[in-house]
Structure formats: C-alpha cells, structure tokens
Amino acid sequence: MKKQLLIFFTVLSLMAKAQTSSQQAKNIQKFIQVWGLIKYKSPQGIAGSFDADKVFLTNMASISQADEASCNEQLLALLKENTAGVVKPDPVADKSLYLNQNLDNRWIKAYPKNLQWALQRLIDYRNASGKHHYISTTGKNDGLVPNEAAYADYDFKNEAMNLLALAKAWAVIEYLFPYKYVIGKNWQAVLVESIPMFRAVDSRMTYEKAVLTLENAINDTHAAGILNQLKTMPQIFKLVYYPPFDYEVSQWKIVVKDMLNDSLAQVSALKKGDQILAINGISSEQWLKAHSALLPASNDAIKQRHLSTDYKGRAFAFADLPAKTLAVKVRRGNSLLNLQLEMLERRNSKQVELINTYFRAKYNAEQAWKGYEELDGQIALIRAGRFYERSLPQDEEAEITFSKQLKSKKAIIFDMREYPQAPGLFYYYLPKALGKPAFNFGRYYRSALQNPGAFVSEEAVETFMSKDIKPIGDLYSGQIIILTSQNTQSMAEWFSMMLRQFNKNTVVIGSQTAGADGDEKQLNLPGGYQFVFTGNGIFYPNGKETQRIGIIPDIEFKPTATEIASGTDAQLQKALNYINKIK
C-alpha cells in the first residue's frame, strides 16, 4: 500500500511540475512578445530610454514564475510605464510605398481585454522623430543593429540571459526582417518551440545549437553566417570523419570531384566521377536532407551547397557517422556498384594535413583566374569575384578606353558565380562604359522607422546606381550573358538583376541562386555572437520576390556528374556555344 501511495504522489508531483513548467513557458512567451513590442514601438524604446536588456533581466524571474493573473498584471504595469506620449497616429501618406506583409498582430487576442487595449495603442503608434535607438538605416556600420550589447564574456549558465538571447533574436526578426512572411512557418509558433530549448541551455555547445536552430528557422541564406562563429561545431555536427575525396552535392547526389591525393586514389574503392546514390542503405537524398537540417539556407540549392566540401573542411554530408567504414551504392558510368568507403579521421594530424594541403593547392590555383579575359577576340569575360578595385579605370581617358574595349565585343559574359569584389564596377563604371544611364532596376525596401515591422521603398536612383553616371556613347547592343549558380548570393544577385535589364539581348544561364538578396544585418547576442539575417527587401520592378527564390535563369544549367568531375567550366562553355550560334 505504501509503495502504491508513493507511486501515486510521485505521479502527482510530476504532473504538477509539468503544469508549472507549461505555465512558465506561456508567461515567457507573453513577456517576450510584449517586451519586443515596447522595444521597437514605444516612444521610450525609440528614444533609448527603455533599457531593453535591463528590463528583461530584471523582470524575467518574477514574470515567468507568476500565475496567469499576476503575469498579466506585471505585463500591464510594464506597458503603462512605457506608453507615455503615445498618441493617435497620422494617416500614412502613400501606402503604395510600404511593404506591410509582415504586419500581423493577431497574437494580442491571447491577452485579456485591458492588455489588448494597451498593446493595440503601441501597435497603432507611429514614430515621427526620424530616428530609432535600435534601428539604423544609414551611416557607418549600417550592417550592425545599433545599441545591442555583446556580453562577450558570458558563460551560458544563466537562464534569464539565455532567454534574453532568444528574445533579442526573435524580436529582431519580428520587426526588422522584411521576409518574415515567407519563412514558411508562423513566427509565433517558432517562439513557442524555442523557449524550452533556450531554457535547457547549460553550456556553450547547447547555446550555440539553440542559436543555430533559430537561425535555421528563418530560411535565409545570410543566416548561415552563424556557422563561421560556432566554436563547438565538431560537437554539434559530430564531425569525426572526412571523405578521402573532394565532392559536390548535386541534385541530392554526392559526386566525387577528385581524390585528395594520388595515394588515396590508388587505395580507395571510389573513383573520380562516381555518384554516391545511397549510404548504409539510405538513399542519398534522404541522407543528405537529414544532414542539412541545421544548415541555414533560403532554398534547397543552398542546402546542397552547404553539404558540399569547402575550404574550411566542413563536409557536412559526412557528419554524425556511425563508423569509419560506410557501405555505399555508387553509379560509375553505366554500372551500379556496392562498395566500402573508408573515411579519414579528423583526429589524425597527418590526415588533417593531407586534407589541408589539397584545399590550399586548389585555392591557390583559383587565385590565378583573371577578372577580365578576352575569348577568341570577340568575347569579353568579366568574373565578378576576381575583378578587384585596383583594376578599375583610374581617369577619364582610361574610362573611354574601357568603353571602346567592351563595345568592340560581340558578346560580354558576366560570371556572377562568386561574390563581387569591386562593387563600383557595376554601380558606376560598367553602366558608363556601356552607355547605360542610371535606372531603378528593382524595388528596395528598408525598415520603416515610423512603423517597425513595415518597410518603406527607397525610390532614389542612387540606391541602385550612381546618379553621376554620364554614359559614354550609345547603349551597348551586343549579347550579354549572365552566369549564375548556387554561389550567386546577395550583392551578386543584386547586380545580376541590374545586368539582366541592361539591354534586350541579355540571357541568364545557370541554376537557382542563394535567394538572399538584400544587405546583411547582424544583431549582437550574449556570448559575443551575432545573429545574422537579411535586412532589406529586394523585389523585381513588378513586385516579384527574390528572397528564397533567387534569380531564375532563362536557360537552366545543371552540370552532369561527368562535367563536375572534369575540372572544366562546362557552364562557361555552354555560354560560348550559345553565343556562337547567334548569327
């Protein structure tokens, strides 16, 4: 009987703890939502007199542990303290200039009527000051969200501070991320899911994983900037082994591009050009999608880019392996083979040096690529990622020479498959040389200071191109080819949009791009980390999005396994073939 009573009271105790934990989570959710609204929308938050971090840390314990009625009372008191000066807003002059898709305030219906009224007052309030303590739109370090402490020495063991990291990141997406509406999931639901994860943080690794998971939730390629900040990446992804080859993930298959050295080529069962179709009985597509779950990306093309090898040796496709030896199904030419893949070990210093030696040599070889080349005397090739500021025309005479040089060509190929190294080339020198006056080639939206959460259109031509362009001669009428791929990201997408509208003889040859077009923003988080996201909205003139979609090519190009392993630029060759067919 005593044993049965003990079990009964144990069950009751567990149920009570679960109920308490559930109430605390609801309180935390409500607090974060109200706190974020005050931070970005109240006169005090706008002016900087609302110390958001201090208010959060001071109130978290009492609000989280309160019963529902007490929680609501504390939130109402906080709202009353920070609604002084709130007046009825003036009507917006031109609603067509605003991007309002993110404005969804139905969440306030979960609060009592008196709280709803106070919340709605802040929602309706408009900032007429022309500035905001927590928002920057011009000036130096515009990419960094202002007035956010870094807490660089934080040790990740304080629940309130961990939840502050969640609150800051969640609120910055709620009010400063133009693409919240295309995330693909309700952002309130993401908050609910994230609270237990951040409450459970007890180390740097669990903290980094929680932040990484939140970054992944916004489906934004810029968010992958968090990967470069992770200090516990090997532990999070369980990076123990490394393949004996360089590879690319294409169409959800692993294509072996090259063996890391001749010795490995002789002993490995896999060969250059092989396609891995399955690993340990799991299809490559299923395997790879599971391994991409924590890799922030706007679309599947970028998930596959992240899974491929890179100079940092991250080989995420082979993370969290059960053993050093894998059973793989391979397509080699027309044959299907079942082979054993022996992996290298990251804890083996000699094997790590072997990996590093291969990628150093590959990197050095790519440095020899030229920013400007002439092909067959009739075609100019400009590689955006290899054309540097030092190569720009230095005076008016050089600009005229540059113009004559380009206009003499039958075709110009712009290789946008790397990040542009000379923005001025596209912003000023190319339009001038090719005879193109400045023009608005898209819609550019920045945060609306008067109503955070909305975004206002920048109509000035200098947002897009230099207003000082004085075209040299007539517009270039030859063929323009733009090469794009999954590596075409942000500024490369922006300038691809521009080039696409240069003349009527422009064609884009490539595949889906990064789908992250717009200036990158960074928000300081406790521990010295920065939460990364796209901070401006970029659309085509007709209002069509680029976020998550990217630059859609006119002629799709996806290399075959043979082309990937050949070491040649098959995409460039396709462009040359296209040009040569033009009469």
Automatic annotation (TrEMBL):
Domain of life: Bacteria
Pfam families: PDZ, Peptidase_S41
Keyword line: Signal
Annotated signal peptide: 1-18
This protein's record includes keyword Signal: yes
Transmembrane segments: none
Protein name as catalogued: S41 family peptidase
Species the sequence originates in: Pedobacter albus
